[in-house]
Write a structure and sequence with these properties.
alpha/beta, Rossmann fold, 2 domains, 8-stranded mixed beta sheet, globular
Amino acid sequence: MALLPSGSFGDGWRDILRSKQVPSRDQDDLWKMILDGITRREGKGVLTHLAVNSGIPLLKASDQGSEPGIIKEEVTFPENILRTPSGLIMLYGDFGPALPPHDAPSEKDFEKAFWVSTKQNGITQVWAPRYTMFSRGNVKEKARLLGFHTSDVETRNSSKEDLAKSMAVDLYAGIGYFVFSYVKMGLGRVLGWELNPWSVEGLRRGAIANGWSVKVVSSIENLDLSDEQIVVLLEDNVKAKERFSGLDSRDLKNIKHVNCGLLPTSEGSWETALGLVSREGWLHLHENVGVHDVEARRAEIEEIFRGRLREVSNERNVTVEHVEFVKTFAPGVWHCVFDVCVTSPESSK
């Protein structure tokens, strides 16, 4: 697939396409010529699909994207919590059928969809561009996680044996952006929560492509931590702590990382994240923050977590060990990750 930048073939082009001044057959010839030209220049294989990128809308759209080559007005609904890429403009190729936005996809829907893959940091990721998003800009943060336990920071020192006995939890797993980094980091098991069934299917396919064992658990199934390296739960992450209540308490003690990767803020999952780390570990909190507000937000986050520990008479300590500037989100606004280090009283002495 070739994905053109947002705004490509806009304005005057849209008028021409909508008015049908150019027959659909000639439009296809144009898109095919563009694909052939890019194919020759890049030399990385034949391109079969062409689309124009678009930001992920904050509100739901009336369907899963417009018909190929057609740009139309959208009827909007409440918050787009599944991050459906309904603004994607498909110009050439079959991206899969338009599906009712509220219906759960079937196995046949998965089979009919157009799936693509890319490789970042040596890790393959898979997604269906008509139905779920891919964030290319997360590549820097994914690479940082891979080297997290090889840095000079003393609190991060962990042997391969220790990592292999540990677990990570990603409360917003998506197609496996950070889930896969934790697996490659060397953690023995990674649990992910994700609401979008298309993202879960992409994660499942991506795990298999990387040679990792994976299991998908629905909201009506019991959580069984068997031998799979990755277990992804297709449900709301508010059930995360409840899910662990029926497991061996040793599983909670092994959680070393909890990732909270929702923008513009993941604050709604912080209490859950803190509850999953029974003794020591890291919480990775994703936020959009004004560049001049980062230090104030850092101090605020520390106080929020320390206050919650005080409320339950927990003597552990919390420190924002590092703030990573991932990418700009808007002028003067950064996508930041706050690394919150949770330590036991013994470690703090």
